Amino acid sequence: MFENEIHQEFMEFKEANDGDVSWWSYVNMKADLNTALGFAKFFYPDIVEVEGYFLLKDKFSARNLSLWKTDCQHQKAEVEKMMNLYQVRDFFHLNAEDENVEDQIAALGKVLQTFWTLSFASRFPDRAISVPLWEESDGELFITVLEQE
Predict the structure, then answer these.
(1) Cα–Cα distance for residue pair 124/135, rounded to 1 Å
(2) Do 76 and 50 fall within a single domain?
(3) Which residue in 58, 65, 44 sits closest to 124, CA to CA?
(4) Strands annotated E in 35-85
(5) From first to last of its 149 residues, what are the pLDDT tens digits of the chain?
(6) Residue 78 burial (CB < 10 Å; 0-12/13-18/19+)?
(7) Does 6 lie in the same domain as 26?
């Protein structure tokens, strides 16, 4: 999914331990069960279906749905795109300190796209759920979820 080298701290742990550090041992040292469970929801997000719209539960707002339905003229895919839209950088902007943060953001975007796609295909096999990931002209990376009709 990504090269180990973009994760500076992991590489430092590995070097300090003569190469005897795996991703599992790194996570064991850095995280706890509650964090792991939080990431399970992050990589396998809950969905709510409201008025026929396929929406990420953690992003849902009835007020925003009403606004986007009007702005997007009730076009289902456009409403879902905007309701589920997230700038990848914003997921962890409070704790982004590495010098190669742009590479890490790109890797996270690809990882999210992969896991969300697998998650939705598993749970909704008869539906065409799309997880587009794209970079805007200013270099910012975005991800969203929408159902193709």
Answers:
(1) 27
(2) yes
(3) 44
(4) 47-50, 53-56
(5) 888 888 888 888 888 888 788 888 888 888 899 999 999 999 999 999 999 999 999 999 999 999 999 999 999 999 999 999 999 999 886 565 667 788 889 999 999 999 999 999 999 999 999 999 999 999 899 999 999 98
(6) middle
(7) yes
pTM of this prediction? 0.88
Tokens matching residue 59: 């992003």
Are residues 5 and 71 both part of a single domain?
A: no
Of 12, 86, 76, 22, nearest in space to 50 by CA:
76
Domain that holds residue 24: 1-30
What is the token pair recorded at 123?
């749970």
- 47 and 20 fall within a common domain: no
> Is 121 within a domain?
yes
